[in-house]
Design goal:
Layout (H helix, E strand, L loop, with lengths): L1 E7 L6 E5 L10 E5 L4 E13 L1 H4 L5 E4 L2 H28 L4 E7 L5 E7 L7 H11 L2 E6 L2 H8 L10 H4 L9 H6 L6 H4 L14 H8 L8 E3 L4 E8 L4 E6 L4 E5 L5 E2 L3 H6 L5 H34 L8 H11 L37
Parallel strand pairs: 7-8
Antiparallel strand pairs: 1-2, 1-4, 3-4, 3-5, 6-7, 9-10, 9-13, 10-11, 11-12
Helix pairs in contact: 2-3
Length: 368
């Protein structure tokens, strides 16, 4: 088992885990530790916690608690950082370099000085580094940072009247978008939704999920809803108070609660009052196929019934051959078959009553 302690090197800075060893540490103690950049002095944020050696990996060991001499050395380093900051700013102005110095940090053993700056693009600071190394006789490191990190190092007061979140307690930056401001019905004014760094306020992300959850219970703007006494379109929605502003058909504005909404859409009375002359032919067209199907079904059933009745009836004896021809000749005009037309017949010539059907055998005269 190993004792793991959490340490920070600056206010609201990143947290690092170290192996406390056998030291008895409590929250707020100053300790001296070995880091990748060198020896540094940090502050205990969380007291030591026992963990298995396999899960922690290889962690650096805390050297000792900070003594009075160590704290005095820290004060001297702070003074050296201020002197280096002023000297570097004067050199930047003299050389007219497009960069802004933000902060200077010295290692605990004064083996290296880190100069943090911001710039719009790449800067050639080789001559500046030579001046700094010749003046301070130590290793110089120039590190370019962003505007958010600049606000975190500089600090200040926000538009809310409190200390900046990034310099007081916010350890990591979260991505912020304009969608978060729109979801909270905030005015899209850059002066009101931007922080000291010139970017969108970090606090827009704090209540974004809450607004998204609450908005699911409210109708969207522009949707038509109805209540017991009125029907209108949603104009504004106040999620915090629960009030919904409706714009009625007569341009009257009323404020209601979410519980007063009966349902979405216009009432059935308004839909019934609208003229619907164009629906009559549509209904007729829809019913025609049904009527045709019914007629076809009825004729098919009657045909099937007649066929079954014919099969069930006893077979009648065949009539004599002599009467068959006469019956066929007598029943021929009674059938519903259409009369056949002869193609050889012309419109202006008709057959005479005494004319024969066969043109090749003329009728003999009566005197013969």
């Amino acid at each position: 088992m190993s004792h793991i302690v959490t340490i920070q090197f600056s206010n609201a800075g990143k947290l690092f885990d170290f192996d406390a060893g056998t030291l008895d540490l409590v929250q707020g103690d100053r300790v001296v530790v070995e880091t990748e950049r060198g020896v540094g002095v940090g502050q205990v944020v969380k007291p030591p916690v026992e963990k298995e050696a396999g899960t922690t990996g290889s962690l650096a060991l805390v050297k000792r608690k900070a003594t009075a001499d160590d704290l005095a050395t820290v004060e001297r380093i702070l003074q050296k950082e201020q002197e280096a900051y002023r000297f570097c700013c004067s050199r930047i102005i003299e050389r007219n370099m497009p960069m802004k110095l933000v902060r200077v940090e010295y290692q605990f053993d004064s083996s290296k000085a880190v100069f943090f700056f911001t710039a719009d693009g790449r800067v050639d600071f080789r001559d500046l580094v030579k001046d700094l190394a010749h003046s301070f006789h130590t290793r110089i490191e120039m590190r370019q940072i962003g505007v958010r990190d600049e606000a975190k190092m500089t600090g200040g007061i926000g538009i809310c009247g409190r200390e900046l979140c990034c310099s007081s307690w916010l350890r990591e930056f979260q991505p912020v978008s304009v969608k978060m401001a729109k979801e909270q019905n905030l005015a899209l004014n850059p002066n009101k939704i931007s922080g000291q760094c010139g970017r969108l306020l970090c606090c827009l992300d704090y209540e974004y999920e809450t607004y998204c959850c609450l908005r699911k219970n409210f109708p969207k703007s522009g949707k038509r809803v109805r209540t017991v006494n009125a029907v209108g379109v949603v104009d504004k929605v106040n999620i915090l108070t629960g009030n919904i502003t409706l714009k009625l058909d007569d341009n009257k504005i009323i404020v209601i609660k979410r519980d007063e909404i009966l349902g979405d859409g216009a009432p059935a009375i308004a839909a019934a009052a609208a003229p619907a002359p164009c629906r009559a032919p549509q209904r007729t067209r829809e019913r025609r196929p049904e009527q045709r199907r019914k007629q076809e079904k009825t004729s098919l059933e009657s045909y099937t019934q007649a066929e079954n009745a014919a099969k069930a009836a006893p077979a009648a004896p065949p009539p004599p051959k002599e009467n068959t021809a006469s019956a066929a000749s007598s029943e021929t005009p009674k059938t519903g078959q259409p009369r056949k037309k002869h193609r050889s017949r012309k419109h202006s010539h008709r057959k005479q009553p005494g004319a024969t059907t066969d043109s090749s055998t003329p009728k003999p005269p009566s005197g013969a």
